[in-house]
Amino acid sequence: MERNYQSSTSTFVHPAELDLRTAFHEAGHAAAIYLSNRQKQLPPVFFEIHVQRPDDDKDQFFAKVVDGNLIQNLPIAVVESFSAFADHPQHSCQRAYEADVVNLLAGPLAEAKYVAIRDDEVFNLNLINFNALHNYGGYSDLEKASCYLEHFISCRVEREKKMQELLAEAFRFIDDRRHWKCILNLAHYILDSQQAVISCDQAITVFDRCLAATRPYRSARYPFFFN
């Protein structure tokens, strides 16, 4: 899971702004992998955040979530164990791939919400569709989400219907105040940390502390974004 850095020649994003958008994008993925999967009582899955920090002004900040996919990382026996929650045999695999798609969509949606807040605009599901997420670094995420659905749903109409359902679910996750607080905290942790790799345990600690705290983490570099 990573932000797509290709953009049209007519679009320019200042490097400092791109850093922020990248951090929120990857924090959205990580928050969904941990918090959304936990809410659904799905097995925990390993992930980590790889960060490339510029050595000078010519280099670009880069971050991506590595792993975190239920379908690709869990043993078949574990995936099949989801059937304990299921009313029919197909439910176990469906729960896993749907969770993975939601977690993929959470990245560009988190970036879109950051941009909406920055621009003092409304973050509304009616203004966000699948194609619009390409404007928020979502090309590779959306491509992978589409591949998931094409593999598991053969009918195009049913596939498009399911994508809309999962997009709405991912939107609700990002728009939840407690989840957004976690994304804010991790985004600024990613920006402030000097580590090349932020471990799964470190990200989870940020989330757990955030949910337990009455005040959010405040970035030394970007204090203006917290209200």
Outline the structure in words:
The chain is globular and about 50 Å long. It contains eight helices and three strands. The model is unreliable at 85-90 and 220-224 (pLDDT under 50). It is mainly alpha-helical and 227 residues long. The protein is 56% helix and 6% strand. It has helices at residues 15-39, 70-73, 76-81, 91-118, 139-152, 156-175, 177-192, 200-212, and strands at residues 47-52, 62-67, 197-198. The longest helix is centred in the middle third of the chain and has 28 residues, at 91-118. α7 (177-192) crosses α8 (200-212). The chain has a single domain, classed as Methane Monooxygenase Hydroxylase, Chain G, domain 1.
CATH architecture: Up-down Bundle
Which sequence of strands runs across the widest sheet? Answer: 2-1-3
Largest sheet: 3 strands, antiparallel
Radius of gyration: 17 Å
Ends apart, CA distance between termini: 29 Å
Helix content: 55-70%
**Percent of residues in β-strands:** 5-15%
From N to C, what is the helix and strand string? HEEHHHHHHEH
CATH class: Mainly Alpha
Q: How many distinct domains?
A: 1
Number of helices: 8
- At the fold tier of CATH, the topology name is Methane Monooxygenase Hydroxylase, Chain G, domain 1
Question: Would you identify the regions where 5 or more consecutive residues have pLDDT less than 50?
Answer: 85-90, 220-224
Structural class determined from secondary elements: mainly alpha
TL;DR of this structure?
By secondary structure, this protein is mainly alpha-helical. The protein is 56% helix and 6% strand.
